[in-house]
Design a protein that fits this description.
Strand content: 25-35%
Shape: globular
Radius of gyration: 15 Å
Bound molecules: S-adenosylmethionine
CATH topology: Rossmann fold
CATH superfamily: Vaccinia Virus protein VP39
Strand order of the largest sheet: 3-2-1-4-5-7-6
Order of helices and strands: HHEEHEEHEHHEE
Largest sheet: 7 strands, mixed
Length: about 190
Amino acid sequence: MPGLDHFGLLAPWYDKLITYNDVDEIKKIAALPAAGNLLDIGGGTGRVASSLVGLIDKIVVVDISFEMLKIARGKGLSAICALGEVLPYPSKSFSRALIVDALHHCINQKEVLRDVWRVLQTEGLLVIIEPNYDHLAGKVIRLFEKLILMKSHFLSDSSIVSLIADFTDNIRVQHYKGNSWFMVKKSK
Ligand SMILES: C[S@@+](CC[C@H](N)C(=O)[O-])C[C@H]1O[C@@H](n2cnc3c(N)ncnc32)[C@H](O)[C@@H]1O
């Protein structure tokens, strides 16, 4: 049986349902403003990306949901339908990359991380935000997404760090408002 298209159904209401906004913290962690291009993988409606306009030369939202991307386009964002696992961009074309609340929705997380690493420039920054696996908020989200049959694949902090460790050990992890934040710098 094919799965439910959760984000297709949620898209028109997504921005009204998900109202929290940690943009000031994202700006700090991603060292914005900056020069270059920013890629928001699994960027959905552009909820986060739209708050970063003007802080970097260009922003591209990549997502697999046409309905989510339609909302992002309505905000004037460049919104491209593609898998995070196979990004349609040349190597080293982005100075910043974000994956906010999306890694656990991707089927092949290792491939997403491998490809984001490919498109990130040297000295570029990758910021990943995921529900904190060990925090009550993370446990509630896991249960909720299970109940609504989302087929999410949540990972602990150490599992995410070990996936990234294939590329670099330049990783910092912080916990903020029930989420785990991974700040990764590509130094070569
Ligand atoms: C919870 S939403 C987060 C959207 C946005 N990052 C935000 O924080 O508002 C997760 C998004 O990941 C997208 N997604 C799931 N698997 C993906 C994949 N393999 N590649 C790209 N996007 C994906 C979904 O379509 C959805 O829009």
